[in-house]
Every structure is written in C-alpha cells, then in structure tokens.
Amino acid sequence: MPELLAVLPDTSSPARALLATPLGLLELRGTDAGLSEVGFLATGSPGVATPAGAVPACLQPAHEQLRAYFGGELREFTVRTAVAAGTEFQRQVWAALPAVAYGHTASYLDLARQLDNPGAVRAVGAANGQNPLAIIWPCHRIVGAGGQLTGYAGGLTRKKWLLELESPPLQLGLGL
After folding, report:
1. SS3 7
2. Mean pLDDT taken over the chain
3. Is the dihedral of CA 53, 58, 60, 66 positive or negative?
4. Which one of 3, 38, 125, 130 is most buried, by most CB atoms within 10 A?
C-alpha cells in the first residue's frame, strides 16, 4: 500500500472579497491558512463590494477588522496572515511595519536602522512598495526623512487620507 502524505500543500485558489471604503474598493484575498493580499483596486476598475453575508469565512475577520478600522473603531489588526511572496529582506521590512503604531509615522531611514542596515534606505522603500497587505501591515505610516509624504502603492492621496484618519484630534486650549 502506498504511503500517504501527512501534509498536503494548499492547492486551493484564494478566496476573494471586495470591501467598500471611503478610498475606493479594497480587495482581500486569502485561504484558511490566512490573509495573503489586501490592496486597492485601480480607480475605474469594475467591481462591487461583497455583501457582508457573502464574504468567505476565511476573509471574514479581515473584512470586519478593516470595516472597523475605516470606522475609526480599530487601531491594531489581529488577523492571521499567510503571505507566500517576498524575499527574505522584504519579509524583514514587512515584519517591522506593525511596530509603527497607529497615529505615528517612521521614516524609511528609521526602518533601515531598525533592521541594522542604515544604508538600505532605498531597498526599504522598494520593499515597502511591494507590501502585499496594505493597511494591515501599515506601510502608509512610512514617510520621508523630513516627514514628507513619499510613495504609496495606493497613491499619495490615499496615504494622506489614512494618516489623517489616524491622527489624533487637535486639542484646542480653553483660551483662559
């Protein structure tokens, strides 16, 4: 009798759902192993938001958490991820992104230094631009050395909007 494999590779195609956000449709992809992709559809791309009741079970936690994030009710994501893409360096950069807290930013140089590779600023920027889990791994919180908005796969308008969403409200003095 032939020996059976104890572990079979996941050959299922990723489930897909579209989430309507104030910035356009966000595409989610994943399997039971976890979330593998989150990204904005290009402006003008055809698509209709997936009704909440029709979101595949493996994408429901991400769908719910992203809705809460855009509603201003969530600051940190806890979804299981299963990203197969990326070089070792890209994975190191992506793993560092969640350390940049909600309402804060870091520079590409800050990230390169955190990785003990301060000369890799451009490589950090390139890896950041290939982040497969937009918003979940908050690449939008990475800015230029002087705080200027630079590159974002979803476009600078979206990056600015996301940073404003995460900014604490301005506290005005009592003027006494």
Report:
1. coil
2. 88
3. negative
4. 38
Closest CA to 111 of 103, 122, 14: 122
**Spatial separation of the C-alpha atoms in residues 138 and 98, rounded to whole Å:** 6
d(CA 116, CA 89): 12
* Catalytic center residues: 139
Neighbours of 165 (CB within 10 A): 16
Contact 160, 149 (CB under 8 A): yes
Pick from 164, 130, 158: nearest CA to 23: 158
d(CA 70, CA 66): 6
With beta carbons less than 8 A apart as the criterion, state whether 81 and 34 touch.
yes
CA dist., res. 70 & res. 142, Å (int): 19
CB atoms < 10 A from the CB of 159, how many? 21
Phi, psi dihedrals of residue 40, rounded to the nearest 5°: -75, 140
Residue 167 bridge partners (DSSP): none
